[in-house]
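Quick log. Single chain, no ligands specified.
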Amino acid sequence: MSIDVWFVMLPGVLSLDMTGPAETFVLAGDAFRLHYIGPQPEVPTSIGLSMGGIQPLPDTLPAGSLLVLPGVSDSRYQFSTPQAKGIQNWLMRLQPQIHHQDITVMCVCSGALLAAKSGLLNGRQCTTHHDVIDRLRSAAPTAAIKENRIFVQDGSLWTSAGITSGIDLALHMINRLCGPEKALAVAREMVVWFRRSGDDPQLSPWLRYRNHIHPAIHRAQDALTAEPQKAWSLPDIATLAHVSPRHLTRLFQAHLGISVRDYLEQLRLAVAEQWLLQGRGVEQASLAAGFSSPRQYHRARQRIIN
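-> predicted structure:
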């Protein structure tokens, strides 16, 4: 039987927040049946196009449904309109079904704010896009908000960081509901070769330490990110950066707050985690990422967790 997926459509809906998960579910074949619901039959989107064919909000949803709350382009305004208030009241009426896990709720990006305004996140673990974290704290003061996460689960409530992370969450749902083979097939069809997990940071090491303008550090980072599995030595990296090893060490600490070794280790951890998600064993994933052994991988991972 197909699983019903209901997308709540409000004016200003972020196009990729909606179409990313929607296309992901569609590629799973007849495993999912998609519906688009909202307070009006047509809405403008964040990219200037309008979407029509939107059905009215149903009184109830079938047991086993997935309810997707995408973000909007201006959540300060668009979640305060009469249309948004109507959605909030509707979500409040669905709370018993959600509480008993008859309905699974997926919040994408600022869609978590809509859930928070409806009381769905009270006392729950959750996340959202890093630019919306402070507003989510205000909207759900009793929630346990996890920063810098791709997605977070608490019972039947799932919240994600937004934009492309909605695709990650949809792939994760396919994995849970249809099995890893289906999820992997969809990921390959989408050319999303590596699926991110909920514990992955929103800002991966490929992006997190790039907020600087020093050319020598960028040269070093370009080399390391291209081949993190290579047996790098500090002199080799410094040669490519056109500075001395000692100076490169000082630059990394001054501009990134991290050592060259720790930066490379974080890259390798990210690669190993992705290989694990693709079904490789710990030993194979560790060696492919550049660790000398699974033990070295586990030690590195424990340092990051602590």
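The beta strands are 3-8, 32-37, 43-44, 50-51, 65-69, 103-108, 125-126, 144-145, 151-154, 157-160.
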